[in-house]
């Protein structure tokens, strides 16, 4: 006869087993805490409000994560207002991203950030990722923290690639390099991810032998007859941390695209350690 005590012990054993198999499976853990950064010192993307909305709704709907957002808005043209704008951005980043504040987040999302952001302690930020926190970058996260001429900024080394230039927006067919990764599952994308219109980045300081490629183009996004290898999305390990980057996300309609949302949600889950996926560089 099963007593109340036996039922309790059985329930406790099952709960512990689930926690061991998948730490995110227990309700006690709750959703992960992500800091979404959309501040810009360079070009301010008009899609940033859409990105903030999509990420917030995605977290709420999936139950996987909650977000706090630190934003700046476009730089005012008036010099005095621009100074106040920069002061507020610096203060907000200091509040959310000082070494002590970084400890309360499970990961960080840089959604369409640009320029040299006034982080209070960039070394502490990178160290937090190396210690095991997640980093996710969308689109112009690779147009952030450019190094001095002839050097590669430590942030770019963490990310795995740096924005060089882009041509006119174009339709592209992104090929899946890993159909088993949560960010590019074949059941969601088939053999490729076609986008009718998007701003496609060309990269520099990118080494495919140091990242695990997820989406690539086999031809130039604007010169369709020019064959080549053009990275679009990848992931990598950074110390004990996990990094996921996709250069897609310039346009509002891309952010609202259901397949793009599956792409970034899979990447977020992987970076948080909630879904398995390879991070080893592929053999060329």
Topology:
Blueprint: H1 4-21, E1 32-37, H2 48-62, E2 65-70, H3 79-97, H4 99-102, E3 107-111, H5 122-130, E4 134-138, H6 154-159, E5 162-166, E6 170-176, H7 186-189, E7 192-198, E8 201-204, E9 212-219, E10 227-238, E11 241-246, H8 252-255, H9 258-271
Parallel strand pairs: 1-2, 1-3, 3-4, 4-11
Antiparallel strand pairs: 5-8, 6-7, 6-9, 9-10, 10-11
Structural class: alpha/beta
Order of helices and strands: HEHEHHEHEHEEHEEEEEHH
Helix content: 25-40%
CATH arch. level architecture of the domain at 31-161 and 237-271:
3-Layer(aba) Sandwich
Distance between the termini: 62 Å
Number of helices: 9
User: Which term fits the overall shape?
Assistant: globular
User: Overall pLDDT, averaged?
Assistant: 91
Strands side by side in the biggest sheet: 2-1-3-4-11-10-9-6-7
Strand content: 25-35%
Written description of the protein model:
By secondary structure, the protein is an alpha/beta fold. Among the domains are: 1-30; 31-161 and 237-271, 3-Layer(aba) Sandwich (Rossmann fold). It has nine helices and eleven strands. A nine-stranded mixed sheet has the order 2-1-3-4-11-10-9-6-7. A two-stranded antiparallel sheet has the order 5-8. The protein is globular, with a radius of gyration of 20 Å. The model is unreliable at 4-28 (pLDDT under 50).
């Amino acid at each position: 006869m099963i007593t109340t005590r036996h039922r309790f012990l059985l329930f406790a054993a099952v709960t512990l087993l689930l926690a061991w198999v998948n730490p995110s499976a227990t309700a006690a853990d709750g959703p992960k805490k992500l800091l979404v950064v959309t501040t810009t010192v360079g070009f301010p993307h008009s899609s940033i409000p859409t990105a903030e909305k999509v990420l917030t709704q995605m977290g709420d709907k999936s139950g996987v994560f909650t977000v706090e957002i630190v934003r700046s808005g476009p730089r005012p043209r008036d010099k005095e207002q621009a100074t106040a704008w920069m002061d507020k951005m610096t203060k907000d980043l200091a509040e959310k991203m000082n070494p002590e504040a970084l400890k309360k987040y499970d990961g960080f999302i840089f959604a369409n950030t640009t320029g040299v952001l006034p982080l209070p302690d960039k070394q502490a930020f990178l160290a937090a990722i190396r210690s095991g926190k997640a980093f996710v970058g969308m689109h112009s996260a690779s147009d952030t923290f450019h190094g001095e001429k002839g050097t590669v900024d430590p942030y770019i080394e963490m990310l795995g690639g740096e924005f060089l230039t882009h041509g006119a927006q174009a339709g592209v067919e992104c090929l899946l390099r890993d159909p088993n990764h949560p960010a590019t599952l074949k059941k969601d994308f088939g053999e490729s991810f076609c986008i009718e219109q998007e701003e496609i980045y060309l990269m520099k300081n990118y080494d495919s032998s140091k990242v695990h490629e997820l989406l690539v183009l086999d031809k130039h996004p604007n010169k369709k007859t020019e064959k080549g290898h053009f990275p679009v999305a990848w992931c990598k390990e950074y110390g004990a941390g996990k990094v996921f980057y996709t250069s897609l996300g310039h346009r509002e309609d891309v952010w609202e695209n259901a397949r793009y949302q599956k792409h970034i949600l899979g990447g977020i889950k992987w970076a948080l350690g909630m879904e398995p996926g390879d991070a080893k560089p592929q053999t060329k």
